[in-house]
Hints:
With 111 residues, chain A is mainly alpha-helical. Chain A is 81% helix and 2% strand. Chain A has helices at residues 5-41, 55-85, 89-110, and one strand at 45-46. The radius of gyration of chain A is 19 Å and the shape is elongated. Chain B is mainly α. Helix content of chain B is 72%, strand content 4%. Chain B has helices at residues 6-23, 28-38, 43-68, 73-96, 99-119, 140-144, 165-182, 187-197, 202-226, 232-253, 258-280, and strands at 4-5, 147-151, 156-160. In chain B, strands 2-3 form a two-stranded antiparallel ribbon. In chain B, helix 1 runs parallel beside helix 10 (232-253) and helix 4 (73-96) packs across helix 7 (165-182). Chain B is globular. Classes of the chains: A mainly alpha (111), B mainly alpha (285). The interface between A and B is large, with 58 and 57 residues.
Amino acid sequence: MKSNKIDNSRLKAWSSIVFRVGIGISLTLVLIGFILLIYISRSSNIQPFVKLEQIPAAIIISIGIFLLLLIPIIQVILSIVFFSLDRNRLFIGISVAVLCLAAISIIVLLV
Amino acid sequence: MNEVNLWWLGGTGIIAGLLGSMLGVGGGFIIVPILTLALHLPIKLAVGSSLVAIVANACTAAGAYTRSGFTNIKLGLLLETTTIPGAIVGGFAAAYIPAAVLSALFGLLLLYVGYTMVARMYSASNNTNAVIEPDTSGSRLSRSLSDSYEDENLSKKITYNVNRTPAGMGAGFGAGILSSLLGVGGGVIKVPVMHLVMGVPMKAAVATSTFMIALTAATGAFIHQHYGNLQPFIIAPLVIGTVIGSSAGVQLTKKIHGDWLRRIFGIFLFMVSVLMFLETVGIID
C-alpha cells in the first residue's frame, strides 16, 4: 500500500477549490432565484409551496440547491481520480464504496 | 400552511451560520427549533430545509479547512462508508416516525448538546496545544490514515496516526442516523469520538467532521427531497443567510472569547429543549 504525500496535499488543494467554486456557483443561482422570487411576488411574505407565476424562480433555486448537494459527491469523484493516480487501491475501493452509497440516495430521489 | 417571511428565514440562516461556525456545530440546532417554534413550519419540512443549509455551511467551512490542510480526507471517506448508510436509514425513518416523536427526540438531543456545551466536554478551541506524535505501533490501516498539518499557533508540523477505526465507524453510523432523522450535522458525535477515542487532534477532528457533514447531510437531503420535504422558497433565504453568517462567524471567532459564548448557548439550548417538550405534549402551541 503506497501513500503519496505529494498527491495527498494536492488532493486537499483541489478539494478546497471544488468546495469554493461549487459554493460560489450554487449560491449565485440561489441568489438569482431569490431576487426573482421577490420581484415576482412583490412581497416578503410567501406561501412555502410554489404558485404558477413563481415557477421560474423555483426552477433556478432548485438547480442551485441540486448543484449545492452535488458538491460533496464531486469531492468523492475527485478523490477516486487522485487515489487512482496514486495507485492506492485501498482508498480507491473506499472512495468507490462511498460514491455507490451516495448514488443510492440520488436513485431514491429519482425513483 | 401559514405564510412565512423571507427576511425571518434569512435572519435564521445568518444566526445559524454565525453561531454554527463560532461554536463548531452544523447549525441544525438553531434552524429546526426556530422554524418549528417561531415560524410554525412542520418539523419534517424544517428538518429537510435544515439539512440543505447545513450542506451550505459545511461546504463554506470545508473550503477553508482543506486549504489549511487540517482535513484528513482519507479518514473522512473511511468513516463515510458507515455514516452514509446511517443517513439513508435515518432519512427513511424520518418519513414514518410521527412528528411529535421527532420533536421529543430533538428536544433530547438539545439537552445533550446543551450539557456538553455548558460542561465543556468538547470545544473547537479545546486541546489545540496538544501535540500528538505519530504512533508507529498502529495497524496498516491506521498508518495509512496518518496525516499532518501545519499548526500556526505552535509554529510546528503536527503529525498523527488514527487509532480504533472500528469504534469510529460505529459512531459514524449513529451520527448518520441522527443527521437525517433530526436535520443536524452530527458533529456532536463525530468530533468527540475522533478526538477522544481515535486520537485525532482537535483541529483535524473539527475539519474532518465538517468535510463529512457536507456529504452526510447532502445524502439525507436527497432522501428528504423524495418525500417532498425540500421547498425551494424556504431553503433559498436560509442558504443565503447561512453562508453570510458562516463567513462572518469565522472572522468574529478571532475576537470573541469562545468559552462564555459556548456556555450561554448551552443554557439557551436547555431552554429551547424545554419549549420543544412543552409543544410536543401540547402545553404550548
